## 1
Amino acid sequence: MKKWVKRWAIGIVLPGILVLSACGNNSDSNTTASSANDGIKERTIKTGIGNSEAHPQGQGMNKFKELVEEKSGGKMKVQNFFDATLGDDLKMTEALQAGTQEVTTPSTSPLVGMVPEYGMLDFPFVFNTEKEADAILDGKVGKQLLERLPEQGLVGLGYWENGFRQLTNSKHAVKTAEDFKGLKVRTMQNEVHLDAFEKLGANPTPMAFSEVFTALESGTVDGQENPMPTIVTQKYNEVQSHLSLTKHVYTPFVFLVSKKFWDGLSEEEQKIMREAAEEAGKFQRDLNRSENEKAIKELEKAGMKINEVSDQEREKMKEIIKPVNDKFAEKIGANLVDEMMTELAKVRGK
Ligand code: TK8
């Protein structure tokens, strides 16, 4: 309910904000250097995310705001919008391309229409630990993926964490690969996820994030999959009875800036943005990881039935899904996928 009310309000307020921020970005022309803050102009940076302010992603955005405002001596202002009030991941990313919004930190999964290579991060069961995910994302492979963004009108300043995804549903505990059969599951708008759930015998429906709660509540779908902090902050336990710790895939968030906006920034301003995104990202990842364990306890208390999935069953699921990964590896470019697997082997060897 609350979300809809907010969205209505935004529908009225937003056009005004757009006009204001457009003026703010264009009105002041470059002046010559004369003080320490020369390269920094008065600016308003509008950001939006799908999750709530309480989610580690929301807390990370608040940290970003704090850092940008501090580093710019209060000249650069950050205005954060939560709960998809500016739209879902895809819509906000398109707004960045158009230059009507400055920042968003979407999951990489819905961006595969723009950067198909991001699909390789969607392969289920590729990462086993957060450490492995960090090594790939912060390393050469992650960097190469960021380099695909500018041609799409986007600048990527690094990766934050969404996390390992777990399955919830209203029907039964999912302990084995067979238990997926017939379950209607909401997936992100991403072909790899769609095909993987189909292979497992589930009935997947791709859907934007802000529609998930209502779809679960009305029974349009039986279940969904998301990392623990999202399951807790979206209160999915109110409409889902089972949580199965499938840990089937890791999803990052990518910190995106509108290239149109970025290109108009001075080097000093770009540096402030870069540093703030990175520092807030470290804070966000730590918080996300500590929330994981807390969330499980909280949901158990709230009455959710929680089950582990054995390594043996996870291996079976991995085997069933393998043809999907192979098909997309071919499509995406086997070289980059090979590079990721080689890097992962190195991390595991350490
Ligand atoms: C938030 C999304 C979300 C993602 C999803 O905007 O869609 O399920 O996991 O957290 O990026």
Note: Residues 49-51, 89, 106-107, 162, 188, 209, 226, 230, 251 surround D-xylonic acid (CB under 6 Å).
## 2
Amino acid sequence: MNLVRPPALVPIKKKPKLVHLSSSLYCYEVKFKEIVLYLLERKMGSSRRNFLMELGRKRGFQIENELRESVTHIVAENNSGDEVLEWLQSAKMTKANTCQILDISWFTECMGAGYPIKIECRHQLQVKRISIDLLNCSASFNPPVSSSCVHVSPYACQRRTPLQDINTIFTDALDILAENYEFWENKGPRVKFLRASSVLKSLQSPIVSMNDLEGLPLLGDEIKHIIEEIIEEGKCCRVLDVLNSERYKAFKVLTSLFGVGLKTAEKWCRMGLRTLEDLKSKKDLKLTSMQKHGLLYYEDIASYVSKMEADAVEHLVKNIICEFVPDAIVTITGGFRRGKNVGHDVDILITCPRRGVEKNILHNTINVLKNQGRLLFYNVIESTFNETKRPSRSVDALDHYQKCFLILKLLKQEVEAEKSKDDGWMSLDDTEHRNWKAVRVDLVITPHEQYAFALLGWTGTPQFERDLRRYATQEKKMMLDNHALYDKTKRIFLRARTEEDIFAHLGLDYLEPCERNA
Ligand code: DCT
Ligand code: MG
């Protein structure tokens, strides 16, 4: 005889006073051995759940107190199928794909009949969107789902986000509001708007009505209100107000200058400086060398770097480095690695498989560039990586690698050698009659054993990186940064040779760089 294990034998962790201990006194015969139920407490409440579990057990149903792998039927009340799935995912219920997800009506009808009644469509909670995880095992997924709909995870690292954003009318609006909060240094709302925008960027179909938002995570009432206004009016008043506000306009201009962050923009704004002309005309204004050079080459830098120009920079840097370190690995990261055709700079990651060899690369490269007369500006930051202080809790600083922020003089002939057309370049050349363009480049040097982490971290987007770290911390009890992955439970650093290794350590499906445009 198979006896139902009474609930109180399972250790009670939380709110013990809410658990009905009376049920622990009884064992009931299991009549229907082929099914194992689990009643979701979410929105049902613990008292009602205990009552229903007791009732079911009395009628010979096997009902688990905890979500175990043996569970075959999950019963929920006042939850949508998507909400249940999302909850199951957060509870790391890996076998959720093999469970029936049922409404309470099925359970109560079973109680009335005294046996498990036939499951009908009306009993099944409709799941509109299947997660990437669940899609991968959808062959065994029982509930009636439409395979054309995809469940959207609250983590960008669990969503495939292509470069092409088909909801820019909404995401642009949310990004502008997020940026405005950034200018006010208001982190909470900024992150809220960025996350919502990022969710919409992953959608494969355009939003045309509010129904299209059903089941999407991270869209609170405020965000939905904005989306509704755009659907109805084609614009959002709040966004227009921001775009017209003096502070937003001033911050947009000031922070576009190389070397100017929020603090400086704030200070200048308070001094009444709003435009580049204001900065130029204020003769006693102290500018850093970086800012002076940013101002000097402002037009070039603001005119964006094309893919062809980025390739030319990579080519140039690779050729220089390979002269003295033939086995160096030189890789474009950032937006260009994600498939973008334009960027504000060229991010280049450099390493060498031979331990320690990477340490001399940066200064040697800078010397060559300097001798070639190509360095318009450079600022070297030496490595601040300290192995003894790992794992580091500070996640604010980007990373501790040796790096150089520079402005490079890129020659027209080098770009032409990339053999493709570039309108941006030609117009600049026509108007200014010079054979070069100033391009912003970041060179980052990494030891080979940290290369995969650096590559993942520097590929972006910043939102993707934030969510990857949040996922590691919240879902895996791990710490991820641009140097390493630390497992807090096992107290070990997890090695990774490739980005795929890092995704695997985190239990995530691998996303190609072009799918990380979150
Ligand atoms: N990065 C990050 N967090 C930040 C800034 C950057 O994780 N706050 C990472 C992700 C992208 C990478 O560094 C390079 O930064 P950017 O050049 O600023 O980003 P990008 O995606 O390359 O953008 P752009 O195409 O405009 O250069
Ligand atoms: Mg970049």
Note: The domain at 147-243 is CATH 1.10.150.110 (DNA polymerase; domain 1).
## 3
Amino acid sequence: MGRKRVTSGMRPTGGMHLGNLLGALENWVRLQDDYDCFFFIVDWHALTTPGGGTAVGYENVGDLRNRVREIAVDWIAAGLDPGKCSIFIQSHVPEVAELHLLFSMITPLGWLERNPAYRDMVQSYRIESPSYGLLGYPTLQAADILAYKGDYVPVGKDQEAHVNMTRDLGQRFNSLYGKKVFPITETLLTPVPRVPGLDGVDRKMSKSSGNYIAVSDSSEETVAKIRSMYTDPVKIRKDDPGHPDGCVVFAFHNIYNKPEASIVRGECENGGRGCVACKAQLAAAMNGALMPIREKRRELEGNPAVIGEILSAGALKAEKIAAETLREVRDAMNLPRRGDF
Ligand code: ATP
Ligand code: MG
């Protein structure tokens, strides 16, 4: 028995942000020492939504290649080591598209229509006419994960329902064709599985919503974005008592200034802390924590050839594994092999 496999991806719709970092990537970095890891930039998934503004999507593909490269830079700067894990681009492994097609034959439409993430996406990205591809997002995700027979999938809370569907689809395949081709896939969450957006604690930070702080933002941009964060709307004057639980700034103090979070809470609730100072303190803590990643990013940006080599090597390794899986899948489904007749 080889090591267990870990698989996960990110959409190149925008820059990698704090939600992606805290909800997923920190787990990836931790897992790469002990598991066979496959991390992919899901360019096909980026095309399931229309995009617009700075967000890449099927109506806005001009920046797609740049975004793919930037995400690769983000990942390595944040600690992924290409010597320990395979990093590649989803569309460079065409076996995944074939598996998606075969899975689409056995994905009950009801599973897709009931998928809460589908409804959320249609609502939050204000998609007027959702595509066939968007409805099938989880089927493509299942193909991504199961082409490499992923045992564990480290993702944020918003993706949990998709991973459950991957597990169910794999098990449905195994039982329909009487072969144990796919493992029982499990989700792995981090201690911060849902990071809020700049615009409210009930909003998810998302690339496509533009409510994010990117790892690639400068310190100055970070300061400006923190100034724009949603705070308690009834705390108007500096010494008004505040309600930290509804405040995005407090949510981030709880992450980047954890040891002092209870002091921040107490001072805010007692009216002893103004929002301007509270935001400045957060900006200093956040910029301090992000500084090493940003420095590494700058180094990598100056060396694009290295990124190309890493992505090519990753695709080669991934394709081998996916090709083996697809042979098993075609056999289980009794599809004729070339030269059979
Ligand atoms: P998009 O808006 O284009 O869908 P996104 O910000 O949701 O972008 P994805 O590429 O869809 O990012 O997700 C990449 C990974 O980051 C997934 O594991 C997802 O669960 C996780 N993730 C995304 N947003 C958050 C968040 N706000 N908090 C925690 N995890 C998140
Ligand atoms: Mg998303």
Note: DSSP finds 14 helices and seven strands in the chain.
## 4
Amino acid sequence: MTGYTRPDGASSHAGDGSPEGELGTFKTLEQFIIERQDSFPHSTGAFSRLLRDISLAAKIVNRDMRRAGLIDVYGSTGETNVQGEVQQKMDALAHREFVQALRRGGECCLIGSEEHAEAIPLSSVSQEGDGQYIVLLDPLDGSSNIDVNVSVGTIFSIYRLPDGYDEEKPDPKAALQSGTEQVAAGYIVYGSSTMLVYTTGNGVNGFTLDPSIGEFLLSHPDLQTPDRGRIFSINSGYYHSFEGGLREYLDWLQQQDPETNRPAKTRYIGSFVSDFHRNLLKGGIYMYPATEGSPEGKLRLMYEANPMGFIAEEAGGAASDGHTRILEKSPEKLHQRTPLFIGSKEMVRRAEAFLQGEPERAMPA
Ligand code: AHG
Ligand code: MN
Ligand code: MN
């Protein structure tokens, strides 16, 4: 992994004597996508345009987020979303921007969003594009953190419309595909810088937004996550309502054992995207398990667990509900929840072993 270091070679000269400039060093997201697309025979460019639409919406959300406190985006809309959660103004704004960008772009025929009860067909409007993709979205993840200037994100998951479905009038059921069918997945983290990270099943690449030119630039090529890390991220306020195996795993993580690098460190932002991103880079595990009050956990399979599971696996990590690989779960509904254990492979395997009552299976550390 290379970090985003601003090139100081702006004044250096390329071989032909012309000034090299900053873009001589960094590839834009668009250039990167087009290069990749060229390696697929029969590619029509539709997927490239779809990603362009997503990155455009991300830039608009980013712009508004950066002015939060100056424009009216703090606080709630006064509405609750389909899962009964309070909808923040930024949730609603992000939902609108992504839907609009995808509608205009014409490559997407069906959108499933956390902020809308049913999947939204788009085919009756536009169409310049082929309308062959389905996009599932968490438009704004971690929205309770917006008002206090803490990193939040957007998560997206992309599928192809399966054969036999009408592009003009896609049945919302077409969105209910298992995670293994994803053609791409990604997230945007609006943090100390804004980054877009995505995979098409051919590695994971990260792009940092350079706000001065409004472009995402390839800053983190071919991201790989460590097999094990020192960080665990969980809301341990619910400790007493976790199942026994998980409590044992958390106790194990906190035991003193310098040889196995324990105790581990707790880091929990409360924005899944931000917690995931940090753990991806540094090594660690993020957990949102079942609790007594939420036996299926809190996070949503289709637009939180599946896309991040795809990215985790592509970076060499793992994603599980404690028993089953996330990507192999069969979805029954758009807003289905799932327990989630995601991140460094060895840590996820160990969490599974504890949850299944066989901690020795994962030993030694
Ligand atoms: P969202 O803002 O999209 O509803 O997601 C919030 C999620 C996730 O981002 C975060 O990790 C988790 O909720 C935090 O939940 P707790 O406050 O229960 O820990
Ligand atoms: Mn979320
Ligand atoms: Mn959300």
Note: The first strand starts at residue 76 and ends at 80.
